Amino acid sequence: MSIFNLEAYEKQLKWIALVLGVASTLSIVFNHQLWAMAFSLPFCMIWIYCAWLHNEKQLKYINVLFAGFYVFGLTRYFWIN
Questions:
Q1: How many angstroms separate the CA atoms of 40 and 76, rounded?
Q2: DSSP state, 3?
């Protein structure tokens, strides 16, 4: 299994993304900014991959944008703290 041949696991990846999205939301509710970003980045990466499978350009670019924000936020968090 290569990283680029995960089409057979798309449904499982989407379930993992759902769990990551819920964990991120709960992190926000409980005011844990670091954990919210840490859960959101892999969430975005899964959706970027799934969007590439189906050529959903808008979804892909929105998630690329948010992934960039999360990478910036995590880098800033560790740089400042």
A1: 16
A2: T
Q: Identify whether the C-beta of residue 16 lies closer than 8 Å to the C-beta of residue 45.
A: no
- How confident is the model over 28-68, as pLDDT tens digits? 999 999 999 999 999 999 988 888 777 788 888 999 999 99
Structural domain for 72, as ranges: 10-80
- pTM, 2 dp: 0.81
Residue type, 65: L
Task: Determine the Cα–Cα distance for residues 22 and 55; give it in Å rounded to an integer.
Answer: 25
Do the Cβ atoms of 44 and 70 come closer than 8 Å? Answer: yes
Do residues 60 and 51 lie in contact, with contact meaning Cβ atoms separated by under 8 Å?
A: yes
How many domains are contained in the chain? 1
